[in-house]
Protein backbone atom coordinates (compact mmCIF):
# COMPACT_ATOMS: atom_id res chain seq x y z
CA UNK A 1 0.00 0.00 0.00
CA UNK A 2 1.40 3.38 -0.91
CA UNK A 3 2.08 6.01 1.74
CA UNK A 4 -0.49 8.50 0.38
CA UNK A 5 -3.24 5.88 0.59
CA UNK A 6 -2.30 5.05 4.19
CA UNK A 7 -2.48 8.72 5.17
CA UNK A 8 -6.01 9.10 3.81
CA UNK A 9 -7.23 6.01 5.67
CA UNK A 10 -6.03 7.15 9.09
CA UNK A 11 -8.70 9.83 9.59
CA UNK A 12 -11.35 7.33 8.53
CA UNK A 13 -10.08 4.81 11.05
CA UNK A 14 -10.08 7.45 13.77
CA UNK A 15 -13.67 8.40 12.92
CA UNK A 16 -14.70 4.75 13.04
CA UNK A 17 -13.11 4.40 16.47
CA UNK A 18 -15.04 7.41 17.77
CA UNK A 19 -18.22 6.02 16.26
CA UNK A 20 -17.63 2.66 17.95
CA UNK A 21 -16.77 4.37 21.23
CA UNK A 22 -19.92 6.49 21.11
CA UNK A 23 -22.01 3.38 20.51
CA UNK A 24 -20.39 1.62 23.47
CA UNK A 25 -20.89 4.64 25.74
CA UNK A 26 -24.60 4.70 24.83
CA UNK A 27 -24.87 0.97 25.58
CA UNK A 28 -23.17 1.52 28.93
CA UNK A 29 -25.45 4.46 29.68
CA UNK A 30 -28.53 2.37 28.97
CA UNK A 31 -27.22 -0.38 31.25
CA UNK A 32 -26.66 2.18 33.99
CA UNK A 33 -30.20 3.47 33.46
CA UNK A 34 -31.58 -0.03 33.90
CA UNK A 35 -29.68 -0.24 37.18
CA UNK A 36 -30.99 3.20 38.20
CA UNK A 37 -27.43 4.50 38.35
CA UNK A 38 -28.40 7.92 37.01
CA UNK A 39 -25.13 9.78 37.55
CA UNK A 40 -23.13 7.09 35.76
CA UNK A 41 -25.69 6.97 32.94
CA UNK A 42 -25.41 10.72 32.50
CA UNK A 43 -21.64 10.60 32.46
CA UNK A 44 -21.70 7.86 29.82
CA UNK A 45 -24.04 9.91 27.63
CA UNK A 46 -21.69 12.90 28.01
CA UNK A 47 -18.79 10.70 26.88
CA UNK A 48 -20.85 9.63 23.85
CA UNK A 49 -21.58 13.30 23.08
CA UNK A 50 -17.86 14.08 23.18
CA UNK A 51 -17.20 11.28 20.68
CA UNK A 52 -19.90 12.69 18.40
CA UNK A 53 -18.30 16.13 18.61
CA UNK A 54 -14.95 14.70 17.56
CA UNK A 55 -16.72 13.26 14.52
CA UNK A 56 -18.28 16.70 13.84
CA UNK A 57 -21.77 15.25 14.36
CA UNK A 58 -23.32 18.13 16.29
CA UNK A 59 -26.90 16.89 16.10
CA UNK A 60 -25.94 13.48 17.55
CA UNK A 61 -23.88 15.22 20.24
CA UNK A 62 -26.84 17.40 21.19
CA UNK A 63 -29.08 14.34 21.39
CA UNK A 64 -26.59 12.63 23.69
CA UNK A 65 -26.44 15.73 25.89
CA UNK A 66 -30.24 15.69 26.12
CA UNK A 67 -30.11 12.03 27.16
CA UNK A 68 -27.47 12.93 29.74
CA UNK A 69 -29.71 15.72 31.03
CA UNK A 70 -32.60 13.29 31.45
CA UNK A 71 -30.39 10.98 33.50
CA UNK A 72 -28.83 13.77 35.54
CA UNK A 73 -32.27 15.18 36.41
CA UNK A 74 -32.69 12.16 38.64
CA UNK A 75 -29.40 12.62 40.45
CA UNK A 76 -27.74 15.99 39.98
CA UNK A 77 -29.60 19.20 39.14
CA UNK A 78 -26.44 21.18 38.36
CA UNK A 79 -25.13 18.61 35.89
CA UNK A 80 -28.57 18.38 34.25
CA UNK A 81 -28.72 22.11 33.60
CA UNK A 82 -25.10 22.14 32.41
CA UNK A 83 -25.53 19.48 29.74
CA UNK A 84 -28.87 20.90 28.63
CA UNK A 85 -27.12 24.24 28.10
CA UNK A 86 -24.58 22.49 25.87
CA UNK A 87 -27.38 20.89 23.86
CA UNK A 88 -29.15 24.27 23.54
CA UNK A 89 -25.99 25.85 22.12
CA UNK A 90 -25.54 23.04 19.62
CA UNK A 91 -29.18 23.18 18.51
CA UNK A 92 -29.02 26.96 18.09
CA UNK A 93 -25.82 26.71 16.06
CA UNK A 94 -27.52 24.14 13.83
CA UNK A 95 -30.64 26.29 13.39
CA UNK A 96 -32.86 23.94 15.41
CA UNK A 97 -34.51 26.68 17.43
CA UNK A 98 -37.69 24.77 18.27
CA UNK A 99 -35.65 22.06 20.00
CA UNK A 100 -33.53 24.68 21.74
CA UNK A 101 -36.68 26.44 22.95
CA UNK A 102 -38.07 23.21 24.41
CA UNK A 103 -34.81 22.67 26.29
CA UNK A 104 -34.80 26.27 27.57
CA UNK A 105 -38.31 25.66 28.91
CA UNK A 106 -37.13 22.42 30.49
CA UNK A 107 -34.28 24.30 32.21
CA UNK A 108 -36.77 26.90 33.43
CA UNK A 109 -38.93 24.15 34.91
CA UNK A 110 -35.89 22.67 36.65
CA UNK A 111 -35.06 26.04 38.20
CA UNK A 112 -38.71 26.50 39.13
CA UNK A 113 -38.64 23.15 40.95
CA UNK A 114 -35.53 24.34 42.80
CA UNK A 115 -37.33 27.60 43.73
CA UNK A 116 -34.75 29.68 41.85
CA UNK A 117 -37.24 32.12 40.33
CA UNK A 118 -34.60 34.48 38.93
CA UNK A 119 -33.08 31.71 36.81
CA UNK A 120 -36.54 30.37 35.94
CA UNK A 121 -37.51 33.81 34.62
CA UNK A 122 -34.34 34.02 32.55
CA UNK A 123 -34.89 30.62 30.94
CA UNK A 124 -38.62 31.12 30.37
CA UNK A 125 -37.78 34.42 28.65
CA UNK A 126 -35.18 32.73 26.41
CA UNK A 127 -37.65 29.95 25.61
CA UNK A 128 -40.34 32.50 24.75
CA UNK A 129 -37.95 34.36 22.45
CA UNK A 130 -36.97 31.15 20.66
CA UNK A 131 -40.58 29.98 20.36
CA UNK A 132 -41.58 33.39 18.98
CA UNK A 133 -38.86 33.20 16.37
CA UNK A 134 -40.30 29.88 15.22
CA UNK A 135 -43.89 31.23 15.12
CA UNK A 136 -44.95 29.06 18.07
CA UNK A 137 -47.06 31.84 19.55
CA UNK A 138 -49.01 29.66 21.96
CA UNK A 139 -45.85 28.19 23.52
CA UNK A 140 -44.20 31.61 23.62
CA UNK A 141 -47.25 33.03 25.42
CA UNK A 142 -47.19 30.20 27.97
CA UNK A 143 -43.57 30.99 28.76
CA UNK A 144 -44.25 34.72 28.99
CA UNK A 145 -47.08 34.07 31.44
CA UNK A 146 -44.58 32.24 33.63
CA UNK A 147 -42.21 35.21 33.34
CA UNK A 148 -45.03 37.52 34.43
CA UNK A 149 -46.06 35.23 37.28
CA UNK A 150 -42.55 34.97 38.71
CA UNK A 151 -41.85 38.65 38.11
CA UNK A 152 -44.92 39.53 40.17
CA UNK A 153 -43.83 37.08 42.88
CA UNK A 154 -40.42 38.81 42.94
CA UNK A 155 -42.18 42.18 43.21
CA UNK A 156 -41.12 43.26 39.73
CA UNK A 157 -44.60 44.58 39.08
CA UNK A 158 -43.66 46.78 36.12
CA UNK A 159 -42.41 43.79 34.15
CA UNK A 160 -45.42 41.67 35.15
CA UNK A 161 -47.87 44.44 34.15
CA UNK A 162 -46.08 44.96 30.85
CA UNK A 163 -46.45 41.27 30.00
CA UNK A 164 -50.08 41.03 31.12
Task: Describe this structure in a few short sentences.
With 164 residues, this protein is mainly α. It has helices at 3-34, 38-54, 58-72, 77-93, 97-113, 117-133, 137-153, 157-163. Helix 4 (77-93) packs antiparallel against helix 5 (97-113), helix 5 (97-113) runs antiparallel to helix 6 and helix 6 packs antiparallel against helix 7.
Descriptive account of the structure:
This protein has 164 residues and is mainly alpha-helical. The protein has 8 helices and no strands. Helix 2 packs antiparallel against helix 3. The longest helix is centred in the first third of the chain and has 32 residues. It is elongated and about 55 Å long. The termini are far apart.
Keywords:
single chain, 164 residues, 8 helices, 85% helix, elongated
First-last Cα distance = 72 Å
Low-confidence runs of at least 5 consecutive residues: 1-13
What integer is the average pLDDT? 88
User: Over the alpha carbons, how many angstroms does the gyration radius reach?
Assistant: 20 Å
Order of helices and strands: HHHHHHHH
The percent range for helix content is over 70%
Q: How many beta strands in the DSSP annotation?
A: 0
Overall form: elongated
Q: Count every helix, treating DSSP H or I runs of 4 or more residues as helices.
A: 8
Task: Give the strand content.
Answer: under 5%
**What characterizes the major β-sheet?**
none
Structural class by sheet pairing and helices: mainly alpha
